[in-house]
Amino acid sequence: QVQLQESGPGLVKPSQTLSLTCTVSGDSITTSPYTWNWVRQPPGKGLEWMGVKVFDGNDFYSPSLKSRASISRDTSKNQFSLQLSSLTPEDTAVYYCARGRVWDGMNIWGKGTLVTVSS
User: Fold this and answer.
1) Pairing mode, if any, of strands 113-117 and 69-74?
2) pLDDT of the chain along its 119 residues, tens only?
3) I need a labelling partner for 86 at 20 to 30 A (CA). Which of 12, 18, 29, 115 fits?
4) Which uninterrupted H or E stretch holds 21?
């Protein structure tokens, strides 16, 4: 059974960089054909896909984030991480990690973690 668990700070200050980690159990993040995604949901709004680390190490991002996002991975720990820079209060959201496949959507999700950006 594949499980994903997000971890990171619940409160960060504006202009700082957010770092979140997703720990994966039950599957390797290098296994084809899976993709490892970050998605967020601001309060009262819909889901926003942020970016993905593909099993082969390639990564892709939403243009709306304007290069503020970066996704890395640690294969020895079976984790992948999100860094989001230049935070503003508009980045306040529940952040989710999720597994998908290269040809379709995400079907396994973590429980999500709330991140509040506030001074």
Assistant:
1) unpaired
2) 999 999 999 999 999 999 999 999 999 999 999 999 999 999 999 999 999 999 999 999 999 997 999 999 999 999 999 999 999 999 999 999 999 998 888 999 999 999 999 99
3) 29
4) strand 18-25
Give the chain's length. 119
Q: What is the 3-state secondary structure (H, E, C) of the chain?
A: CCEEEEECCCEECCCCCEEEEEEEECCCCCCCCEEEEEEEECCCCCCEEEEEEECCCCEEECHHHCCCEEEEEECCCCEEEEEECCCCHHHCEEEEEEEEECCEEEEEECCCEEEEECC
Look up residue 42 and give its two tokens. 């601001």
Helical segments of the chain, H only: none
* Residue for token pair 């960060």: 12
The SS3 call for residue 8 is coil
Q: Which amino acid is at 103?
A: W
Q: Tokens 């970016």 belong to which residue?
A: 51
